Automatic annotation (TrEMBL):
Gene3D superfamilies in the record: Arfaptin homology (AH) domain/BAR domain (1.20.1270.60), Phox-like domain (3.30.1520.10), SH3 Domains (2.30.30.40)
Keyword set, alphabetical order: SH3 domain
Ranges where the PX domain occurs: 251-374
Species in which this protein is naturally found: Cylindrobasidium torrendii FP15055 ss-10
Record-linked Pfam families: BAR_3_WASP_bdg, PX, SH3_9
Protein name: PX-domain-containing protein
DNA damage in keyword set: no
Gene Ontology cellular component annotations, sorted alphabetically: cytoplasmic vesicle; plasma membrane
Annotated region described as Disordered, given as residue ranges: 210-231
Length: 704
């Protein structure tokens, strides 16, 4: 890389109003403009006399001027003005006075170090050195426990950004230009590592041995318990020999139900949901019936789900966690949207608790069990104030030693990437087709209803509404029901008075007409409720490639580092060992997808078939009941009394063939089309400008 000339990335004086916050805008720079001190006349870009912390660049970085980024060489002296900006960036100044953005993982502070009280850290070892004699060393139980109790000091490496409107416009792609290998802390862990990290790893696995029970379950040792200021058992994650996460808790279900509207003097109106945790009953050893499932119900609003998601992303950066449903911009209290949001939140929390590692995260159990508002307000800020786990996440991943085959790991990621992309494309096609199937069911409902009206019109001699609604053309000389010979006095479809045979048949045909109306209702309801639920569930298996993009990127980048560390004549076993830890993590995530895919598609297929079977069984039941009316003795019993008008006769003049628009699933976060809530918001804004009644009838409304 060429050394940037002075002024290469110099930032001109700029006001917030002049800044282009479009697709090419920098989220981090925008955050600096919004929260920093902006003075357009300052020559230093609005920073005034701000004094930052001294730092030094760790790696070479070629910044993009259009993104307000700063180019640096490894070893350059820097001044960090703002450390924590959006998407893992910092605002820094170099020795020439140029100011710009730099990834947080690309520098390290050289002054103002603070020591953790009551913690004695072992001396740092050289960045890269051979550690074969250390790997093979014998460690006593006392030494292992002492090393395991040494706190890990997490380094803040930036958050994985959660869903946003701008992401949805870009097809779910993050605006962060850096791969998850950087933002998750995997690169920092692989390249630098920590002396205390290696000690803990050796104490856990020596000759394929795992953490002993005395080390993991010491009830009297507070340092071994997970807390919001340190790391304990809930932060230790194990990968077995088959590259699968070891489950510490059995699966459980979560229901999100009973939404209600609330009003607060501070935050205004909002929707609150009941969240119920269900633990299945454990069968009794004595043979007695199992007790009822354990239930814990708390109340949560959408913003609290955002807090949970943010805390999880910071604490578990190496996992492919499900995306949070998008925030609604308009119609937040519409019944259809509230129900759709309820379903999306239920699917989200169940996919979180289904993950074998995320399931036992302390913030998850706190979210599902804290019933006190005061306790929530007291504890949750502490979760959010803890620095992101970054590389320290990988120091707590334990796996069998030397279990990685390079060729297998290389082949697995390529196959996995190809497979998830194909699955995503196929599921997207399936979602589109399923929408057409639902529309076809609605059309079938209209057809069945029209058939019912036509049959009723025939036996009553009452005209059915003309085209274009029904396609029937009325003739100039149509008959009137008052004309003799159309129906007799008993209402039978016959010119003869007292004809019991025609009376029985007429009443049976009327039952057929009524049955077809019920069948039409079943078709319509099936498309709007049962099939809508399946259509919504398809979102859960959509876009696996986007969800696991970070895992694939991290895996490939780590493989590259692993090859460098294991070159002949230049072996760095410490780096290779750390690469193995990251690769075990990514392989475990691939295995998690494999097991969940089996469960997901089997469940989807069975639920769809069960719904279809139940639907057709109801249709068959209605048709069988109508068919039985033509057989003796039913038809004879019908002929004993005059025919009563059908409740549907009044609709013949105005057939009930129009239907409200079929409800569609809310879009998935990774869908490439703009989010529907945003479209509604923009449309409503246009309506306000153009006046009442413009709405969809306006020119702009055609685009939505």
């Amino acid at each position: 890389m060429t050394t940037p000339t002075p002024g290469h990335n110099a930032l001109p004086s700029i006001s917030e109003a002049d800044f282009d916050a479009g697709i090419n805008g920098s989220t981090a720079w925008m955050e600096h403009l919004e929260h920093g001190s902006i003075h357009s006349n300052d020559e230093d870009g609005g920073l005034g006399q701000t004094v930052g912390r001294a730092a030094r660049a760790l790696y070479e970085f070629e910044g993009k001027a259009e993104f307000r980024e700063l180019s640096v060489e490894a070893g350059d002296e820097l001044e960090v003005i703002k450390e924590n900006l959006a998407d893992g960036w910092s605002l820094v100044k170099d020795a020439t006075g140029e100011v710009g953005l730099l990834p947080r993982t690309y520098y390290t502070f050289t002054t103002d170090f603070t020591s953790t009280p009551n913690v004695d850290l072992p001396p740092l070892s050289p960045r890269f050195h051979s550690g074969k004699h250390e790997r093979d060393a014998t460690i006593t139980q006392e030494t292992a426990k002492e090393d395991a109790d040494t706190p890990i000091l997490p380094q803040f490496t930036g958050d994985w950004s959660f869903p946003s409107f701008r992401q949805s416009l870009l097809g779910g792609k993050s605006l962060n230009r850096f791969s998850s290998f950087v933002t998750s802390g995997a690169e920092d862990f692989v390249l630098k590592g920590k002396a205390e990290d290696k000690l803990i790893t050796k104490s856990i696995f020596n000759g394929h041995q795992k953490l002993s029970s005395t080390q993991s379950d010491d009830d009297n040792d507070e340092s071994n318990r997970h807390s919001i200021v340190g790391e304990g058992e809930a932060d230790r994650h194990f990968v077995d020999a088959s590259y699968a996460w070891k489950e510490k808790l059995p699966p459980f279900r979560v229901l999100v139900h009973s939404p209600s509207k609330r009003t607060s003097s501070l935050s205004g109106a909002f929707t609150i949901y009941n969240v119920t945790l269900l633990f299945d009953a454990i069968p009794s050893e004595s043979g007695s019936p199992p007790s009822s499932p354990t239930r814990i119900t708390v109340q949560r609003r959408y913003s609290q789900f955002v807090i949970l998601h943010t805390a999880l992303m910071r604490r578990l950066p190496g996992l492919a966690l499900p995306p949070l449903p998008e925030k609604q911009y308009a119609g937040r209290f519409n019944d259809d949207f509230v129900e759709a949001r309820r379903g999306d939140l239920e699917r989200y929390i169940n996919r979180v608790t289904r993950h074998p590692v995320a399931r036992y995260a302390e913030v998850v159990t706190f979210f599902l069990s804290c019933e006190s508002d005061s306790e929530w307000k007291r504890i949750i800020p502490q979760y959010l104030s803890v620095p992101a786990a970054g590389p320290s996440f990988y120091t707590q991943v334990f796996h069998p030693a030397f279990n990685l085959d390079l060729e297998e790991a290389s082949d697995a990621v390529e196959r996995f990437d190809t497979h998830t992309k194909a699955v995503g494309k196929g599921v997207q096609g399936l979602r589109n087709i399923f929408g057409r199937v639902r529309e076809a069911r609605v059309e079938m409902s209209k057809a069945e209803r029209l058939l019912s009206y036509s049959l009723l019109s025939l036996i009553t001699a009452k005209p059915l509404a003309s085209a274009p609604t029904t396609g029937i053309v009325e003739e100039d000389n149509h008959f009137s029901t008052k004309d003799a010979g159309l129906v007799n006095e008993a209402g039978a479809w016959c010119w003869r008075e007292g004809c019991t045979h025609c009376l029985g048949m007429t009443k049976a045909m009327q039952k057929t007409s009524d049955a077809l109306q019920h069948v039409a209702d079943l078709y319509d309801d099936h498309a709007r409720r049962t099939q809508l639920a399946t259509h919504e569930e398809l979102k859960a298996v959509a876009h696996p490639s986007s969800l696991y993009e970070g895992v694939v990127s991290t895996h490939r980048s780590t493989l590259s580092r692993y090859r460098e560390a294991t070159k002949d004549g230049n072996t760095d076993e410490d780096m290779a060992s750390r690469c193995e830890t990251v690769l075990n993590t990514t392989m475990a995530e691939m295995e998690t997808y494999h097991s969940q895919k089996l469960e997901d598609f089997s469940t989807l297929a069975k639920e769809h078939l069960d719904g279809e079977i139940a639907f057709y069984e109801q249709v068959v039941q209605r048709l069988k009941a109508a068919r039985s009316a033509y057989d003796k003795p039913s038809v004879d019993n019908l002929a004993r009394s005059p025919r009563q008008p059908s409740i549907y006769e009044r609709e013949l003049e105005n057939p009930r063939l129009g239907a409200t628009p079929l409800p569609q699933p809310c879009p998935h976060v990774f869908d490439s089309a703009p989010m529907r809530p945003v479209s509604v918001a923009i449309q409503e804004g246009v309506g306000m400008i153009l006046g009442p009644g413009s709405g969809r009838g306006s020119v702009f409304g055609r685009f939505w």
